[in-house]
Hints:
Elements: H1 2-20, E1 21-25, E2 28-34, E3 37-46, E4 55-59, H2 64-67, E5 70-76, H3 87-90, E6 96-98, E7 120-122, E8 130-131, E9 144-146, E10 154-155, E11 168-170, E12 192-194, E13 202-203, E14 216-218, E15 226-227, E16 240-242, E17 260-262, E18 270-272, E19 279-281, E20 289-291, E21 300-302, E22 322-324, E23 346-348, E24 372-374, E25 396-398, H4 412-416, E26 422-424, H5 432-444, E27 448-449, E28 462-463, E29 466-467, H6 478-483, H7 487-490, H8 508-594, H9 602-606, H10 611-618
Parallel strand pairs: 1-4, 3-5, 5-6, 6-7, 7-9, 8-10, 9-11, 11-12, 12-14, 13-15, 14-16, 16-17, 17-19, 18-20, 19-21, 21-22, 22-23, 23-24, 24-25, 25-26, 26-27
Antiparallel strand pairs: 2-3, 28-29
Amino acid sequence: MRVELIIVIIIGTLKSFWCDLTELKCDEIKALSYYERYYGIKCTISDAVGDSSSTFVIRTANNYEYNKLIQEVEFSTCKFYDIPKDIFPTFPYLRKAQANNCGIEDITKYNFQYASELLELRMRSNKIKKLPHSVFSQMTSIITIDLSANQIEEIQNEAFAGITKLQTLTLSDNRIVKLDENLFRDLSSLMYIRLDSNKLQVIDEKLFASALNLTEIRLDSNEIAIINGDAFGALKNLKFLNLGNNRLLNVRLGETKIERLFIPYNKLTHLDINKNLKLLYAPYNDIATINFNGNTEIVEIKLRQNSVSDISNFTAQTKVEVLDLSYNPINTLNISSFSRMSDLVKLNLEYTNITSASLTFGTFAHNFNLSQLDLSYNQLRKIDFQIFTALNHLTHLKIDGNNLTDIPYEQLKSHYFPKLSLISINDNDWNCTYLSSMIKSLKLNNIIVFIFSKMRVYDLNNVDGIRCVPNNTQHIHWDTAIEHLDDQDLAVLPGKKSPKDPSFSGDLTSNLTRIWNRILEIESAVMRIDDTLQFNKGLSAFQEALTSNNNEERDILVQSEVGFIKTILIFMCFLISIIVFVVVAKSAREYIMNHRIYFPSDNLRRSTTTIQTAMEHVM
C-alpha cells in the first residue's frame, strides 16, 4: 500500500507540474542591424500568459550556436507575474530584454541569475511595487535600466549593488517617497537618472555623492521641499538639472558646472546661480532678486510670472539671446536696461506695467539683432515708433492690450521694420473703420495680423475677430497721408499743391470737400467705363450667337451629306447581293446538270421491287 501511495503522489506531482508548464516560442525572428551592419537576431514572444505558479520553457532550435545569435528578446502583449528567468540561460548572449506592459508584479535576483551579458533591461508600465536587496546584482554588464510607470513604493538599500557599469537609470512615474543616502553608492558610471513624477519630499546631501559622472538629473514633479546641504556640489560634470513643480523655497548649486537649470513652479523668492549656467528656466515662482555671481555666459533667461521689479543687474548679461520678463512688476525701463545685450533676439515684456514714458530714444538702440518683441498689455497709449529705428531685423511685434487708437501702419515696413512679417494688435481701442483700413494695408504689405483663437471676438463689434469701437465719424490720418505723398500722388488733388506750399489750405473741411468732389468724378468715370464694358459684353454675346448659328448650319449640312452617303452604301450592298445570288444560282445549275441521274423508265423510278425485277425491265 505504501508503494502505491508513493506512486500516486509522484504521478500527481508530475501531473501538476506539467499542467502548469507553459511553453514559450519566438513568434517572430528579425535580423538586427545598425548602420547596415548585422549584429544579431531579435526574438519576439507574443500573447503568453502565466501567473505566480507558472513554469516557463523556451522552445528553440535546441542549437546552442543558433541561440547565441539571439541578441534581443521582446515580450509583446503578454501577461506574467514575473519575468521568465529561463530566457537568460537559453540565450546566453542576450543583450536586450523588453517586457513592457506585461502586468509583472514581482522581480527578484533569481529572475536575472544568468543575465551577466545583458546590457539593457526595459520593464515599463508594469505593476512592480518593490525593488528588493541586490535584485540586479547578477547583471554585471548592464548599462540601461528602465522601470518607469510602475507602482514602486519601496527601494531597499543596495538594490543597485554590484552594477557598476550602469549609465542610465529611469524610475520616473512611480510612487517613491524616500531614497536611502547609500542607494546609488556603487553607480560610479551613472550619467543619466530620472526620478521625476514620484512623491519624494527630501533629497539627502549624500544621495548622489558617489555618482560623480552624473550629467543629467531629473527630479521634477515631486513634493520636494528640502534639499539638504550642497547635494549637487560634488557633481562637477552635471550639465542639466530639473527641479520643476516642487515645493522648494531655496536651492544651492554650489560650484557645479550646470549649464541648464529648470526650476519652474516652486516657491523661490531668491536665486543664486552658478558661473557656468547658460539657460535659466524659472517661471511661476516668486523670485524678486537674482544673484548672477559674475556669470556672463548665460544665453537664455525665462522668468515669466515672478516678482522681479529691478533689472539693473541684468545689464551685465552681454551674451543673452532670449529674455522673458513677462508678468513681472518692472514698471520702469532705463536706457541702459538692454543697452549691452547686442545679441538679444527675443524680448518679452508682456504685462510688466511699463508706460509710454519708459520707452525713450535709446531703449532699443543697440539691439540690432532683435527679431521678436512683445509689449502686450502694458500702459502704452501712444507709441513713438521712431525709437525702434535700430530694429531692422524685427519680424514679430505684439502690442495687444495697450488702449492704442492709432499707429503708423502704412509705414511699418517701409520706415521702421523692413522684415516685419507678423503683428498682434488685439484688445486696443481701434475705431472700426480705421481698423478695417489698417488690416487691409497690413495684408497688402504681407504682414500677418495674428490673433489667438481664444481671443477672437464674436459677440462685439469686430473686424476679423479683433474688437473695435464703432463711431459715426471716420478715423482719418490726414496729416500722415498727406505728409508722405510725392508730387505724382498730389496730381489727384485739386490745385496740385504741395503741403509745404504757403497757399496750401490747412482747412480740413475744404480739403475733404475737394476729395469728395474728386471721388464723384472718379465714380462718374467708373460708370462710363462700366457702360463701355457692358457694350463690349453685348457685342461679344452677338458674336457668340453668330458663331453658334454658323455651327448649327454646318452641323445640318454635315448630317445631310452623311445621309446621302449612307443611301449609296445601302444601294451598293443590295446590288452586290443580287450579283452574288445570280452567280451562286448559275453555279448550282451547272453542278446539277453535270451530276444528273437518268432512270430507264417511269416504272423503274416508281418500283419498289427487287434488283432482279429491275434487271428484267432493262432486258
